[in-house]
Write a structure and sequence with these properties.
37% of the residues lie in helices and 25% in strands. The chain has 176 residues and is of the alpha/beta class. The protein has one domain: Rossmann fold (3-Layer(aba) Sandwich). β1 (22-26), α2 and β2 (46-51) form a beta-alpha-beta unit. The protein starts with a helix and ends with a strand.
Length: 176
């Protein structure tokens, strides 16, 4: 359930090189991906993390504190779609990283898209679905959801997207 080291490096580099100041993560787990994003932020940058598990995110909080980035991270516990409705919308988001319930990826996309600035990025994890896409009929709901979203993003006029073969696949979308 944790991203790979190369994905962590990618997140930190993309955050730093694109000048991200305000980031959002949906699905935090033990905090490795959020730590990588936070390390790429400038000192006044802010990352909001959404997750349903206090148990796993308590581990994340400890790592954030030890890494010296805890002050840049605001953790919200609860279902992501509900938490998204409560977010402050005064400043647009520069970067969104989504790695949570696969069946809800499309709903997360639609909820965050209006909040992301033009040329901002939305990144989805696990978009190769363990290499099982394209190997015949997909039985699992999560696989069907990822397959449908990949197809949608490839033709969605609101974004430009590319499926990167980093680890289990990162779908990177630039908001137009």
């Amino acid at each position: 359930m944790q991203i790979s080291e190369e994905q962590g490096n990618f997140l930190q580099i993309i955050t730093a090189t694109t000048g991200v100041r305000r980031a959002l993560e949906i699905g935090t787990f033990t905090g490795y991906s959020s730590l990588c994003i936070a390390r790429g932020l400038p000192s006044d940058g802010q990352l909001t993390c959404l997750d349903v598990s206090r148990e796993w995110t308590d581990i994340a909080r400890d790592f954030w504190r030890r890494a010296g980035v805890a002050g840049q991270i605001d953790l919200k516990i609860g279902p992501a779609l509900e938490s998204l409705k409560k977010l402050d919308d005064k400043d647009p988001i520069d970067l969104v990283f989504i790695d949570a319930a696969k069946e809800e990826y499309d709903a997360y996309f639609e909820a965050v898209l209006p909040r992301v600035r033009a040329n901002g990025l939305i990144l989805f994890d696990n978009m190769l679905w363990g290499g099982r896409l394209g190997r015949g009929p997909i039985e699992e709901n999560s696989g069907r959801a990822i397959d449908a979203l990949n197809k949608k993003l490839a033709t969605d006029p609101r974004v430009e997207s590319v499926l990167l073969t980093v680890a289990d696949g990162i779908q990177m979308c630039r908001v137009k």
